[in-house]
Amino acid sequence: MVAKRRKSRSDEVQAASESNRRQRQGNNQTFSSAMTSGASPIGAMMLPERLAWWALLGLVFCVPLATSNWTWLGFQVPFTFDQFDIIKVFVMRAFLVVGLAAWAWHILFNGGKIRFSWVFYLVVAFIIWTLLTTITSIHPETALFGKYRRFEGLMSFITYAGVFFLGVQLLDRMSRIKKMAQTFFWSAVIVNGYGIMQFLGVDPNLWGALPFEANRAFSTFGNPNFLGGFTVFSLGVSLGLVLSEQRPTWRAVWWIGFLMSVWCWVVAFTRGAWVGGAIAIAIIVAFALWRKAKVTGTDGVFAGGIGILVAALTAISLNSPDPVMNVRERLASILVFDQGSAETRFQIWQAAISAIQERPILGYGADTFRLIFPRFKPFEYTADAGYLSVADNAHNYPLQLMTSLGIPGFVLLYAVFAVVAFLSARHLLRSTHSSGDKFLMAGIWAACFGFVMSLNFGLAITGKAVFTWVFMAALIAPLARSVTVRPVSWAPFGAVAAAALAVVMLYVNFTHVLADNYHLKASVMTQGVQRVEAAEGAVRLNPFNDMYRAELAMAHMDLFSSHLAGLQAVRGTPEEESRRALALQQFQTTERVLLDVIEFVPWEFDNYVFLSNLYVGAGQFLDRAYYQSAVDIARRGIYDMGFENGPALRLQLANALMELGDVEGAYREISIAASQDPNFADAHYVLAITAERVGDLERAHEALSQVLLVRPDYPGAAESLTRLEARMAETATGQP
Q1: What residue segments make up the domains of the chain, in order of their start?
Q2: What is the pTM of this model?
Q3: pLDDT tens profile 337-373
Q4: Cβ distance 219 to 195 under 8 Å?
């Protein structure tokens, strides 16, 4: 009986194995048939599933276009302070929540097929690890939501995973993959077209002062580096559509889109994107040659036209005196490591490596690089990039991940990339799908690979990184196995719970955008008490954003400054005491807010500068005892938190020490600050004062000369130099 049971059990296992094998074959055959059928991806869907499908397409189309700046329509200002990333995150999460809720509703009430891939296990492991690093982070709030204007925290990684899951469920036939690729194509045409307009000097939107070169394309991404990464996707997808199309008219349309992608790709002048895009194009061309793609006269015309366009853009750029806008100098700078942006980038990498060595396993938490950078930045970085420069990203995605999520987090995420790339490539090379379908899938594969390669030299933000996951879903969907489920008896309860959760998430999503509208008002649209009220509104709606808290502190500091100005105006009058009381009250409020900010995010360097500056002002006008408070908070930042290469904080420390009579200590601190940044005029001016007081007239003369070299109009510098030179002449001649 025992032997018989064992034999029966063996038969059951073999039967189950054979059943699974046949099911996998059936799934692949079904997908293969659907890939070649060209059937509509909409017709057979029920309403909830159709809503989920349109939500996925809405995400693909709208995320690249999302921006809060609509001044071209007559609006005076954007809706949010962050005009790009926060809106893209909002749109992305809104469509995802609606899509997942609709899909869940469909499965609960109607049943259907749930598609699984063992890649899901890797993704889940990565999310769990990211959650662990968030809990152990130096600032869990930042690790959860991401740094302001980047937002690649745990929530964004969960969003990526949700997009990947939804994509695998819905991209279950080639007709849908084509529709998704075409939807992305039309969005990219608008994005790239806008970038080309900016290059040509035509921009209907008002952006204010830009932190990069004029006529350099940035489109709806706000930064040429971000736009460059996006163009890598548009290059691969548009060229894949070209090679997959048999109809001459539509083939020409896809060629036009590819031409626009190439144009925008070039004029973004982003080296990492050039590398990634070149890799993507090379892969597609190699695949087309291997598969002996049919070439038409139209192909030759467009290929030649694109070659002429690239040559013309290159020739135009060679006349540019700006090295960033000059293709030859831009390419040559890739191999120059000891100057310019390449040098500072290596210094940022050096800081990242130092940070990884300190916490190699758990890292510091997702998107916390800005918080730790002041502690680890090399001495040379301040001199090369300036004392105001703070890197909020490692400019190398593997280093960024290892710094944020530890080495295991990097391994898990890149394992997802590698497994999807390997499995989908093997399937693409072995499958019997039509050549046209293969070319589109090859274009998608090349786009993903090229983008990941570009991340070795660039940045990952949610608005472009999400497409890695959309397209990985398209690549892995043919390999997913399907499990048929029936409607469940508790469907109404589950559907209500899913809908309620979706409503809550949409509400939170909207409040974060509304909070940024308040932040815009506090930053640029209001003054005085109204500014404080706007900043308080931002903090109330999104208490997890440390930048909003810092803006509230700055609003209070402005009020304190206005009280000090009023106090100076009534000195020696009967109003002086009442004005002093008001100034003291405002000082105490500002101090409390700044201390709260430092308690909330103790690793943010700027807040120590702000508070020490507040104490120096209070010591000057209210009570000299506050100078000691300035010394204490500055030393806490420099020596306890490790911000040793922060000259702005040493400047405040030197000012306070000098007022307390410790001129030698002030001279020591300000000497370090001035040596860290030759262009920091304030530090060199205070160095001149302290050097003269300790009798080092030569050093004082050098410092004042440096001030005037950097800022010829620096208040009092020219007069001080004239007086100092007269004193030095008297000393040299022995005159009294």
Answers
A1: 1-33, 112-485
A2: 0.90
A3: 555 667 888 899 999 999 999 999 999 999 999 999 9
A4: yes
